[in-house]
Amino acid sequence: MKKIEIFDTTLRDGTQGEHVSVSVNDKLLITRKLDEFGVDFIEGGWPGSNPKDAEFFRKVKSVNLQAAKLCAFGSTARSLDAVKEDANLNALLQAETSVVTIFGKSWNLHSQHGLGLTEEQNEELIFRSVEYLRSEGRQVIFDAEHFFDGYKNNPDFAIRMLLSAQKAGASTLTLCDTNGGTLPHEIAEIVKTVAGKVALPLGIHAHNDSELAVANSLSAVENGVTHVQGTINGIGERCGNANLVSIIPNLILKQKRETVRPINLQNLSSISLFIYETMNLVPNSRQAFVGKSAFAHKGGIHVSAVLKDSRMYEHIEPEKVGNKQRVLVSDLSGQSNVRYKAQQLGLDLDSDKELAKRVVDRIKEMEFNGYQFEGADASFELLLRGEMGEFHPYFNLIDSKINISSNDIRHLSHAEAVLKLEVDGEIEHTAADGNGPVNALDNALRKALCRFYPSITETELVDYKVRVLDEKDGTNANVRVLVETSDRKDVWVTVGVSRNIIEASLHAIIDGLNYKLFKDKVKSKFSV
Fold first, then answer.
1. How far is 170 from 450, CA to CA, in rounded Å?
2. Closest CA to 245 of 208, 222, 220, 271
């Protein structure tokens, strides 16, 4: 079997997605990361369409790539009368990449109604555009835009456009499901037919409008395609592109195919997260293979089985794609969940089955009242260690008051928190200002505690989420607050629930600070 070429278009087609914006420096960082990951082609952008992409191609010349080929993207010439003078084609040449990708119309609906060309004129435009780029020493990948819709409408026309690009010297003919509406069995039938009519390697470029881009890409490979295009995390216009993060492990692990450049699948999760972070996008926790929830188990029966043999509920070993198995603790938990989480913390509950049952009952009761420990591991650990007698709060809050005032003239608001707390029998009474009541409470707590626990100054609140429970109760509803705290080395999440949003926030913040102090105690114990 022929090895599969991986063509990444994250920096071009991916950036056309809604809410996606990257700087030139971001694109350079991503280029390096994609090269290290092992893709064969990196489509850097469309130099003839915007100044940012033109600047990228100027700056990327100084980047030493290991083996990936950089590719510039554009369209066929706009007019048959001036192919060699076409601004778009010459911008591709000025990018000075060894490989260029150009797209041409393979659906006569577009060529006739969009460009106003006859079938012969469209065929000639493709031929002369590819020929010109080849004459300038470029490898040309031809993307047959809307190929599958074009083939279903007029197969003879669609095939003629491919043959025109082939005759002109293209290296690869990429069949594009541009509207993303083709089904896998249609992909299979059409690819097999086309493979019998052309001599060049075939590629697939699928969009995800029917949630089938990955399936369509894999179906194309099964039927002869050896060049696969897509984006990391499936980002792209409308519903996105074919997701290489799903395609690549399916190719290697399920279809037993080799890629042209060796790809270390253990880097799959890290490159997925890198792209999300660089593009300032929220990672999809349910994303196949790499999502935080991809190998997360919640139901007690599932967990019990996984502990015996993970194959019972996992289609691959998560470590193969750089992910890890997680067991969630919730109201669906059984004792297996608690024992598993305890084992991760280095605690042995096998000898105390009554303790595990007690913790499960406590969790179920708390989650009935709105708590959620799936995303609040630090609160769960404090609960578990508290039940084991290993943790006791490092301070007690005696009283708290919040004062909020506003200036109607300048619309300024001001919050002040006054706290009284006790540490080892000593009372600390303090106050602090803040931008709002929660910020003022957070500031006051840290101010009061730093005299007793100086390491508190290392912590900061880095995320704060509020979820209203039972919305029908309006302003009287329970709210759940998740607080993410960091000490510049670690990050942890704690939870608080109350009908009073300030009280819920206070519970979560107090848990967060207690967790920091507990961590410090454990660390100092083992460093002695």
1. 69
2. 271
Phi first, then psi: what are they for 210, rounded to 5°?
A: -110, 15
Task: State pTM to two decimals.
Answer: 0.70
Residue range(s) occupied by CATH 3.20.20.70 in the chain: 5-263
Long-range contacts of 189-193 (CB under 8 A, 24+ apart): 190/148, 190/151, 190/152, 191/219, 191/220, 191/223, 191/224, 191/225, 192/223, 192/224, 193/155
List all residues 6 or more positions away from 236 whose beta carbon is below 8 Å from its beta carbon. 9, 13, 14, 16, 17, 207, 208
In sequence order, which ranges of 169-210 are alpha helices (DSSP H)?
184-195
Could you report the per-residue pLDDT of 238-295, keeping only the tens digit for each? 999 999 999 999 999 999 999 999 999 999 999 998 898 888 888 898 999 999 888 8
| 3-class state of residue 134 by DSSP | helix
Largest CA distance in the chain: 92
Q: How far apart, in whole angstroms, are the C-alpha atoms of residue 294 and residue 390?
A: 32
Quick check: 74 and 85 in contact, CB under 8 A? no
Residue scoring higher pLDDT (308 or 38):
38
CA nearest neighbour of 257 among 289, 215, 218, 230: 218
Rounded distance between C-alpha atoms, residue 482 and residue 375, angstroms: 8
3-class DSSP assignment, residue 221: helix
Q: Is the pLDDT of residue 70 over 90?
A: yes
pLDDT number for residue 528? 42
pLDDT digits (tens, 9 = 90+) for 387-396: 888 889 999 9
Question: How far is residue 140's CA from residue 72's CA, in Å, rounded to a whole number?
Answer: 10
Note the CATH architecture for domain 5-263.
Alpha-Beta Barrel (3.20)
Which CATH number, 3.30.160.270, 3.40.630.30, 3.40.190.10, 1.10.1420.10, labels domain 396-527? 3.30.160.270
Q: Which one, of 13, 75, 76, lies nearest residue 41 by Cα?
A: 13
Read off the tokens for 16: 């056309």
CA distance 381 to 360: 13
